[in-house]
Every structure is written in structure tokens, then in C-alpha cells.
Design brief:
Blueprint: H1 2-17, H2 19-74, H3 81-150, H4 156-161, H5 166-196, H6 205-268, H7 279-302, E1 307-312, E2 325-330, E3 335-338, H8 344-365, E4 373-377, H9 385-399, E5 404-408, H10 412-417, E6 422-427, E7 430-435
Parallel strand pairs: 4-5
Antiparallel strand pairs: 1-2, 2-3, 6-7
Helix pairs in contact: 1-3, 2-3, 5-6, 7-8
């Protein structure tokens, strides 16, 4: 663990300092400096050479002028004194100029030598810094190699591949902190035990060894408990996730169930926000309204236009189905009253009208089904003469539409009005029937 930490520190130091990049930059700077200094030295050498040549020329001119002055002094008797004096003054002025230029050249040589000395000193300093930097880099690389070998890494690339990611590092850090916490707890226990046993006589080594083993066992047990707690926590987190998913599915199913329940309540007539009528009753009322419409055509004819049937919207009691009750409207006095208020004959007319209306609706909606026969059992005895004639006229009209109308009755008036009769008679040997 220590070796790995040292490797990390060396790599961080290497990356933070940027030694390789600094090394390359410093070498590049040194090379450029060397080239610049070499060029500068070369220019100084050339300048010195030119100054030396100039001094040599000036010295030759001075020597020549001294020779000429000597010659003038030796032969001044034959020459004009004024010319000699002028020539001498010119020689002296030229000599002074040559001397001054020689002094400046020598001063330039001294300055050139000083600059050359400074440049050489700076170059030596840069070379010394380069050697020091190379030595530092070499030392760091050697430390890195040694640290990698101590940590059992073949190369720096292998170490970088084995580095933990951020999540694993945090997990490992948490485990280390947990271990430190356990260690601190053990240390506190040891300190407490030391405080408690400060005034006691020292026990033998075996007792101390047993105590140490017990504390180590407690520490291992705590570490085991910590690992077990982490495992339980992971299991609990997985269970919590599963519970959340199950809850989401249950919630979705509950919402679907609520929708289906609304549809079911709506179809059964139990929905709190809709009319209290079931889907079955709604369909029945739809057909019942058509039966009533056809029945009213018959009832109007039989009652001389006095009565028509009406479907009531409210049931008579809670046991009855809403919308399936009947009332009758008396068009003569513009009043609506229940069916139970009609007389027996009027009730028979209503029943007969409903039966005929039902047959009309069945024929209209049954897809080709025809009701060819209709039997009427009794009921005619409650009709007065006019009502009976109207009922018979209606039945005769139905018979003309290729329907067989069977009337079961004991009235002699009906026997006279019906042409084809099946008569049942009682006799001593039992009952008999015969067509008349």
C-alpha cells in the first residue's frame, strides 16, 4: 500500500512539474543560447581582429610619421622652416588622432573581452543548470522505477491500467475510514483498559497475550459485522428497488382496475356520476321505446284515438328497473295516469297493442324472421261492443297480411265473426275438437 502511494506521489510530482516538457524546453533554450552565444562570440572575434588590424595600421602610420619627422629634423637646414613646422604639426595632429583611435580600439577590446567573459559565465551557468536538472530527472526516474518494482508493477503503463476509478476509490476510502473507525474504537478500548489497569499489578505475559488475542478477535468480529452489515444493506437496497418496481406495477394495475371498474359501474348503472341505469336496461329501454311506438299505432286505432302509451323515466319502486314502466295518456282530457287505473277492457287493449307492437319490432330487427302466427287467449269478454268490433277489425287486418290469428274465447259474438273455427266440445267420452 505504501509503495503504491509512493508511486502515485512520484507520478503526480512528475506530471505536476512537467519534467519531461521542462527538460525538452530547457535543452531547446540551451541549444538556442549556445547558437546565439557562439554567433555573438564569433562577431566579437571578428570585431577584435578588425581592431587589431586597425591598430597595426595606425602603428605603422605612426612609425612612418615618426620617421618622416626625424628626416625633417635632419634636413631642416635645406628646407623652409615654415613648411617644416606645418608638416610637423600635421604629423603631431595625425599622431594624436591615431593615439586616440588606438585607445578607443583597446577600450573596445576590453569591453569585448568583458562581454565574452559574461557570456561564457552565463553559458557555464546554463550548462550547470542543465546538468542539475538532468540529475534531478534521473533521480526521480530511478525513484519511480524502484517504487514500481517494490509495488510489483512491470512498468508505468501497467500501473496506470491498474489504477482504481473514482467510484472504486471512494468505496475503498469508505472501507479504509471504516477500518480506521474500528481501529480508533479498539484504541479507545485499549486506552480505557490501560486506565482501568493503571493501578493493578502487571499480569504475566500469557494473560496479556490472551487479552491481546481477545481484542484482536473482537476487532475481527467487528470487521466481519461491518462486512455483514454492508451486505445486508446491499440486499435491502435491492429489495427496496424491487418493492418500488412492484409498487409501480401495482399502481399501474390499480389505475387500470379503476378504469375497468368505472366502465363496469357505468354498464351496471352504479356509476356515481352517471344516470342510475345499467347498460342492459338502456338497451331494453331503446327497444321498449320502439315497441311502444308501434303499439300506439294499434292502441290509437282500437281506442278511437283516446289513449297512447308513455314510457316513464322513474321506476315505481326500487325493485323495478328505471325506464321500463308504462303510463297511459288520455288525449281526451290531456291527463297521464298509470296503467292500473284503466278498466279491464282497456287493459286488454293495451296488452294486445303491446303484443302486436312487439311482433312488429321483432320482424323489423330480427333479420328476416317473420311472425306468422299470433294466439290471443281470452280477454275479449271485458270489451264492450264497440271496442270488440275495433279489436276484431284490427285482427282481421292482420290476418289479411298473411298472418294466422288464433283467438281463444267463449263469446258467441266472436264465434259468429270468425269464419274458420276450431271448436272444442265436452262429451260423455271426453273432449273433442272439430273444424267448423
Amino acid at each position: 500500500m505504501f509503495c503504491e502511494t509512493k508511486v502515485s506521489e512520484l507520478l503526480a510530482q512528475k506530471e505536476q512539474c512537467g519534467l519531461e516538457e521542462i527538460r525538452r524546453d530547457r535543452r531547446s533554450q540551451l541549444e538556442e543560447k549556445k547558437k546565439a552565444d557562439e554567433g555573438f562570440l564569433e562577431s566579437l572575434v571578428q570585431e577584435k581582429r578588425r581592431n587589431d588590424q586597425l591598430i597595426a595600421q595606425k602603428r605603422e602610420e605612426a612609425a612612418r610619421m615618426r620617421g618622416e619627422a626625424a628626416s625633417l629634423c635632419e634636413g631642416q637646414s635645406g628646407l623652409d622652416q615654415t613648411a617644416v613646422a606645418e608638416r610637423l604639426m600635421e604629423s603631431r595632429a595625425l599622431y594624436g588622432q591615431l593615439k586616440r583611435e588606438s585607445g578607443r580600439a583597446q577600450e573596445g577590446d576590453r569591453e569585448t573581452l568583458a562581454v565574452l567573459t559574461v557570456a561564457q559565465t552565463h553559458l557555464s551557468s546554463l550548462e550547470s543548470q542543465e546538468r542539475g536538472l538532468e540529475a534531478e530527472v534521473s533521480a526521480l526516474e530511478n525513484d519511480l522505477v524502484n517504487a514500481l518494482e517494490e509495488a510489483s508493477f512491470i512498468s508505468e503503463e501497467e500501473y496506470r491500467r491498474m489504477l482504481l476509478n473514482e467510484a472504486d476509490r471512494r468505496l475503498l476510502q469508505e472501507e479504509v475510514e471504516a477500518g480506521k473507525a474500528a481501529r480508533d474504537a479498539n484504541k479507545r478500548d485499549l486506552d480505557r483498559l490501560r486506565a482501568e489497569t493503571a493501578g493493578l499489578v502487571r499480569r504475566d505475559e500469557k494473560e496479556e497475550s490472551d487479552l491481546l488475542e481477545r481484542l484482536e478477535a473482537e476487532q475481527k468480529q467487528r470487521e466481519h459485522d461491518l462486512t455483514s452489515t454492508k451486505t445486508k444493506l446491499e440486499i435491502a437496497q435491492g429489495s427496496a428497488q424491487a418493492i418500488q418496481e412492484s409498487f409501480a406495477l401495482t399502481k399501474e394495475a390499480s389505475e387500470e382496475e379503476e378504469i375497468l371498474k368505472d366502465l363496469s359501474d357505468l354498464a351496471s348503472g352504479q356509476h356515481r356520476e352517471a344516470d342510475q341505469i345499467s347498460f342492459e336496461t338502456y338497451v331494453q329501454t331503446w327497444y321498449f321505446a320502439r315497441v311502444i311506438r308501434h303499439a300506439n299505432q294499434r292502441l290509437t286505432q282500437m281506442t278511437g284515438g283516446r289513449y297512447i302509451l308513455r314510457r316513464t323515466e322513474e321506476a315505481k319502486d326500487r325493485r323495478a328497473r328505471t325506464g321500463l314502466d308504462l303510463s297511459v295518456e288520455d288525449l281526451w282530457n290531456a291527463k297521464t295516469r298509470p296503467i292500473s287505473s284503466l278498466s279491464g277492457g282497456e287493459k286488454f287493449q293495451v296488452v294486445l297493442s303491446l303484443a302486436l307492437g312487439l311482433s312488429d319490432v321483432v320482424v323489423a330487427h330480427a333479420g328476416g324472421v317473420e311472425i306468422d302466427s299470433l294466439f290471443i287467449d281470452e280477454g275479449f269478454g271485458s270489451l264492450d261492443e264497440n271496442s270488440l268490433q275495433e279489436a276484431m277489425g284490427l285482427l282481421q287486418g292482420l290476418a289479411e297480411d298473411n298472418r294466422m290469428i288464433g283467438v281463444i274465447s267463449h263469446l258467441s259474438m266472436l264465434q259468429q265473426a270468425i269464419d274458420n273455427k276450431l271448436v272444442a266440445k265436452k262429451g260423455e267420452n271426453g273432449s273433442s275438437i272439430a273444424w267448423e
